[in-house]
Write a structure and sequence with these properties.
Length: about 375
């Protein structure tokens, strides 16, 4: 397989205002493509998003993206996708937490905004591809089918958050940084050589639409406070909380349990029940997950696999790979782990790999734990 594409294309470069997307746009232009830069305005009030270059959707980011486009010498526009972002990402984030699940808003943004709303608009305007600064690789087989693969440098690989892309979206995706065997410092050095002012700009972190980084405060302001019980595995009350939405599976800190466990060891969040507003805690060993089911599978550049298969899986954006057996049964993905894993929560994405190839992504619905442990 070879990386695509080779012929000159009309390319819409999504420019976040960071160094990666600026260098990606510059490389696409240097390769001879007809590139137009676009910055996505994702908030009706950009000042409510992060400032100080910590996010990816601030007023400063828009200005930085425009300056980078001017240096590269490409046209530049700002597109208002604030309403779509609010509906598909922010409201989804709130609803998932309200239901006791743990969502990944960056993955949802890639699926619904950057490679759905943006791509649809780009194609309608006659563009061939959308270019981003993600570290991943699209390759094309002799029959024209496309696959998404991990970046050449595993340390920077971002294929996990792109695992939701389908075959049509992959056909119009361009990731110029994916085959770069360089460090981030070398990407910054390249930006500096290109006279891009974002060369030394800090990377974005956390959730762009939570201005102060206080996720619990953000959720409490929108979902309100609702006192409930914190119970142990036997159902005995060990404390209270002000809203189940303020917890995630595997959480250790902030439980505010007044007395230690009988064995004196720390307790962790094992289960969140929004129905009765109860949070269950227990020992760390009770977090060991041996199997799970996942819904809404999306097959990345191909059709659904038939029958059980051996894969590796990634369960969080910067997590390690783990060996699994997976099978699609009546639209639900059933996954068994070769070794128990921890920190798995409903609402997260599981991404399956065959070597470096991304097979697909699905949303975790339920988890199964070791015998005697609470099932999620």
């Amino acid at each position: 397989m070879t990386q695509t594409p080779q012929r000159p294309l009309r390319v819409l470069a999504a420019m976040s205002g960071g160094v990666d997307s600026a260098v990606a746009a510059a490389r696409a232009a240097e390769a001879g493509h007809d590139v137009t830069g676009v910055h996505l305005a994702l908030s009706a009030n950009p000042q409510s998003f992060r400032t100080g270059a910590r996010g990816c959707c601030t007023i400063e980011d828009s200005r930085d993206a425009r300056r980078a486009a001017d240096v590269i010498g490409i046209p530049f526009y700002v597109w208002d996708l604030a309403e779509r972002f609010r509906e598909d990402v922010v409201e989804d984030f709130i609803a998932e937490y309200e239901a006791g699940r743990t969502p990944n808003p960056c993955l949802r943004c890639n699926e619904k905004i950057k490679f759905a709303a943006l791509l649809d608009k780009a194609i309608a305007l006659g563009f061939d591809a959308v270019c981003t600064g993600h570290y991943a690789t699209v390759v094309t087989g002799p029959d024209g089918t496309r696959e998404l693969h991990r970046a050449s440098d595993m340390a920077k690989d971002q294929s996990y958050v792109l695992g939701v892309l389908d075959e049509r979206q992959l056909a119009h995706a361009m990731f110029p940084l994916g085959d770069t065997l360089t460090t981030k410092d070398e990407i910054r050095a390249e930006a500096e050589r290109r006279d891009l002012a974002v060369a030394k700009k800090p990377d974005s972190h956390d959730i762009c639409f939570i201005a102060d980084g206080d996720t619990q405060g953000f959720l409490a302001a929108r979902l309100g406070s609702a006192e409930g019980d914190i119970v142990d595995e036997s159902g005995a009350k060990v404390g209270t909380h002000e809203g189940a939405h303020g917890f995630t599976i595997g959480q250790r800190k902030g439980l505010r349990i007044g007395h230690p466990a009988p064995d004196g060891k720390p307790r962790y969040v094992l289960d969140i029940s929004p129905v009765d507003n109860t949070v269950t805690v227990g020992p760390v060993a009770a977090l060991d997950v041996t199997a799970l089911t996942a819904i809404r599978p999306r097959w990345c550049g191909g059709t659904a696999p038939v029958g059980p298969g051996a894969y590796t899986a990634q369960l969080r954006a910067h997590g390690d790979e783990t060996a699994v057996t997976a099978e699609l049964i009546d639209g639900t993905l059933h996954v068994s782990f070769a070794e128990a894993v921890r920190g798995v929560a409903p609402g997260q994405a599981i991404v399956l790999y065959d070597g470096t190839r991304v097979v697909g992504s699905a949303t975790i619905a339920t988890t199964a734990r070791r015998a005697g442990a609470l099932a999620g």
